[in-house]
Amino acid sequence: MKMMHSTIISVAKEFQNYLEPIAQKNEEIEIKDVLSRFTTDVIGNCAFGIECNSLKKPDAEFRRIGKRVVEFSSFEIMRAFFLGMFQNLGRAFRMKITKPDVSEFFMRLLRETTHYRDKNNIKRNDFLSLLMQIMKTGKLEGDETDLGKMTFEELAAQTFLFFIAGYETSSSTMTFALYELAQHQDIQDRAREEVKKVLEKYNGEYTYEACLEFKYIDQIIHESLRKYPIVDSLLRSCGQDYNVPGTKHVIEKGTFFNISVYAIHHDPDIYPDPEKFDPDRFTEENVKNRHPYAWLPFGEGPRICVGMRFGMMQTRVGIASLLSKYRVITCPKTLIPLVLEPSNFVMTPKGGMWLKLEKV
After folding, report:
1. How far apart are CA 137 and CA 139, in angstroms?
2. How many other CB atoms are found less than 10 A from the CB of residue 216?
3. Exposed, middle or buried: residue 52 (CB in 10 Å: 0-12, 13-18, 19+)?
């Protein structure tokens, strides 16, 4: 994380500069698209070592493929659900969730990139470089832990998962956070004041240590993910027979079951007045008073999201860098109350998210 931090900051500076003329013109902006381009540029640099430039070129190939990853037709959603429930049958029929053109793009991209780096002895501070070390030696430089060598296909799978985890979820989380901040100027002011104080302490630089001190920004992110869990349900397989407490029901080993993250996050017994946006739910004291699995936007346990820490970091940087220079406000095109797109695989605002920016 520390190794990739400087890359995130360099993209964040481009992000700030991109927003400057928009704020000056007082234009309405579809912020979801802009944030997706920001996370595309970050993940392209950090995972693949590629300058995507989608902030400047919204039709860039990497951005186009990124949109394809999370766009599913009704048939594709049903197929994904079927494969989740009947994995062995899906393997027998060689069925896939990922679209062929998406798979071909990433496999070609990774083959060309790894081959070029090997041939020219290029090393970069990115996720792909770490995986290449494991693929060749089964170890990371400076660490004697034997991780076991991985195949190229496993490298591709891990990189693709890292891309998904860091791209759509982060941009959507920032979108919902800014939507709430635009409606709650007191919360936005408090967050901006925190950013100002932390930056003063670190001479105006978004150092790795500085970004870890954005505690209230983190509370805003946590509350956004509570109210709007991007992946609102988790499909899991029961590892052993489980007697549901207080009942005679037993979930047998091997049973597939669905955990409704949305229902847990909106349970009034866990989160009173669940529709209220309140970052103070996530103070250290309040978090300690809740069950540790009462907040599940990244899953939990051995199947927790591999990109959680990376996603949190780029979301933290994205929100902080925007609030340090701009105020987010609603506009006539802002949908209040929010309407969600029913056909999307992940939680997405219908018709995009329209807001305005003002220079601070």
Report:
1. 5
2. 20
3. buried
- Per-residue pLDDT reduced to its tens digit, 82-126: 887 787 888 888 888 788 888 898 899 899 999 999 899 888 878
d(CA 175, CA 296): 19
| Angstrom distance (rounded) from CA 106 to CA 62 | 9
Tokens of 157: 């799978």
Report, as an integer, the average pLDDT of 153-173.
Answer: 85
Q: Which residues contact 274 (CB under 8 A, 6 or more apart)?
A: 227, 265, 266, 267, 268
The pair of three-digit structure tokens given for residue 186, joined into one six-digit string: 């007191």
Distance CA 127, CA 166 (A): 12
pTM, 2 dp: 0.90
Span 306-333, average pLDDT: 93
Integer Cα distance of 169 and 353 in angstroms: 15
Q: What is the C-alpha separation between 281 and 216, in angstroms, rounded?
A: 11
CB 53 within 8 A of CB 15: no
**Is 198:78 a contact under the CB 8 Å cutoff?**
no
- C-alpha–C-alpha distance, residues 90 and 80, integer Å: 10
Under 8 Å between Cβ of 231 and 346: yes
